[in-house]
Amino acid sequence: MIPAPAALSALEISGLSHRFGRVQALREVSFSIPQGAFCALLGVNGAGKTTLVSLITRLYNSNSGEIGVAGHDLRRNPRQALSKLGVVFQSRALDADLTLEQNLSYHAALHGIAPAKARLRIGEVLELVDLSGKRKARVATLSGGQQRRAEIARALLHRPQLLLLDEATAGLDLRARGDLLALVRHLIAEEGVSTLWATHIFEELQPADRAILLHRGAVLADATCAEIAGDRTLEQAFLAMTGATAA
Ligand SMILES: Nc1ncnc2c1ncn2[C@@H]1O[C@H](COP(=O)(O)OP(=O)(O)OP(=O)(O)O)[C@@H](O)[C@H]1O
């Protein structure tokens, strides 16, 4: 009997290493994210999260290793791979002086989406992030949480299979952080988009969430938060693994 083909991963990272001069930012990082899954990339400042996100978005090339997005090798087929990727960076990608619609129209055009299709898709993504009523509002007038949701709408315009979020909750209060994470979980159910959620905030995650624990550029654990934590809190388990003592 011919075996069924393995389901395509949304993200496949294999033996990825990167150094900046004398700093080894990533060491032999390997993991994969199946389609339609949520995965946290958890690590303290300097762990290598932004470096990993920068390599996946091809801001620069890795020294060694491979990255595949939705079955496309990033080095060999960058255009196809990047077309399957949506990214919410730490820094803002929307122009605060323009309306949400103007911003999204501009980004839709960058993705080569024709104006008539873009108008429809803008309506869809705004509904997904619960900002339909803000279509004509200037981005500067939106709250911090609304602006992050608008960034997610921008990242979803071209129907990516993988959504990367780098410290998406930075600067938000506790409630807005919870709302944003709930929205991302909802998107996985609605759009089937896989998510890599890079964060240093342990409390954001739920016991059943899968977390890749990155420390000094290496993967220390890849399991559910409950499995990593055992009978401790996730943060205590992390501190024990890295040799530090809990405060
Ligand atoms: N452009 C660069 N030049 C030199 N060293 C760098 C550069 N970017 C990152 N590094 C170093 O690489 C390591 C990983 O940094 P990175 O920014 O990826 O970590 P991070 O987990 O994203 O932390 P943060 O949450 O603070 O952004 C750190 O030691 C950092 O100092």
UniProtKB/TrEMBL annotation:
Pfam families: ABC_tran (PF00005). InterPro entries: AAA+_ATPase, ABC_transporter-like_ATP-bd, ABC_transporter-like_CS, ABC_transporter_ATP-binding, ABC_transprt_ATP-bd_su_PQQ, P-loop_NTPase. One of its GO terms (molecular function) is ATP binding. The keyword Ribonucleoprotein does not apply. Gene3D superfamilies: P-loop containing nucleotide triphosphate hydrolases. Belongs to the ABC transporter superfamily. Keywords: ATP-binding, Nodulation, Nucleotide-binding, Transport. Residues 11-241 form the ABC transporter domain. This is ATP-binding cassette domain-containing protein. Coiled coil: none annotated.
